[in-house]
Amino acid sequence: MSTNTLILRAGVIHSREHPYATALGIADGRIAWIGSEGLADVRVADDPTATVINLGESLVTPAFVDSGWRAAGHEPGPAAAYGVAYVTPAPQPGSGAGETGEPRVLNPLTEQLPLAEMQARGDWFAFGSCGAEYGPDQHPWAWVRAALLQADHPLTARAAFNAATRAGHRYAGRDLTGELETGAPATLAVFRTSALAVQTPDAVAQSWSTDVRAGTPMLPELTAGGELPKCLFTLRDGETLHAAAQFAGLAGVGA
């Protein structure tokens, strides 16, 4: 194994490929493996030079994409502190974005639309800041919460999360799945959150999805007025874009 290996363990890995995983390894900018604490023990023993981080049950998800970026440049800058790894300039007026068959970029905090209805008829959209300044109540988890809790035609938490991750890659034309899977680029974010859940307007679907047999990857429980997840660090292709003080030594590890 590479001496530049990063092992994240004792966390909650949001992965459809491995829905019960608690650990993953990163080497050469990619996810080398995803699995259990038992597998992490084996990998640590195999590579004593690896950097190992105990996540303390923090959540690891694909990093966010801001598809409505209106700041200068193409780097996330301060947005990385909220789990954003990629930014895409917002569509210009008259570009056709939002018309039939074209992607729409929106900020659910500032624009109320029938999102579930749009999704049902096959419209596709991605979330972005759309000119709003990042802050404690204006960032991707706030967008997801707004789409989940809006009064009319709300999205499930999963659909809203996808609009802030996978849809952003599609909108930008990147050949990325926006998933945590073996061999994928190590573009991810780690969040401290108080509780995890599967949130959907359909109570029956929610009941089944939270059953351990469903193998549904969990997301933070988002409630009106509740505390939003706190980003601990953000990686893009294994490179550290943001790290809280306790993870300051991450720079260069796993890249």
Give the topology:
Elements: E1 6-9, E2 12-13, E3 23-27, E4 30-35, H1 37-46, E5 51-54, E6 59-62, E7 64-69, E8 84-89, E9 104-106, H2 115-120, E10 125-127, H3 140-149, H4 157-163, H5 166-172, E11 188-192, E12 196-197, H6 203-209, E13 219-220, E14 230-236, E15 239-243
Parallel strand pairs: 1-5, 2-6, 7-8, 9-10
Antiparallel strand pairs: 1-3, 3-4, 6-11, 11-14, 12-13, 14-15
Give me a quick take on this structure.
The protein is of the alpha/beta class and 255 residues long.
Question: Can you tell me about this structure?
Answer:
With 255 residues, the protein is an alpha/beta fold. 18% of the residues lie in helices and 25% in strands. The protein has helices at residues 37-46, 115-120, 140-149, 157-163, 166-172, 203-209; strands at residues 6-9, 12-13, 23-27, 30-35, 51-54, 59-62, 64-69, 84-89, 104-106, 125-127, 188-192, 196-197, 219-220, 230-236, 239-243. It has a five-stranded mixed β-sheet, with no helix packed on it. A four-stranded mixed β-sheet has the order 4-3-1-5, covered by helices on one side. Helix 3 (140-149) crosses helix 4. The longest helix is centred in the N-terminal third of the chain and has 10 residues, at 37-46. It is globular, with a radius of gyration of 18 Å. The relative contact order is 0.19. The model is unreliable at 93-100 and 203-213 (pLDDT under 50).
What does the average pLDDT come to?
Answer: 88
Largest sheet: 5 strands, mixed
Poorly predicted runs? 93-100, 203-213
In percent terms, what proportion of residues is strand? 25-35%
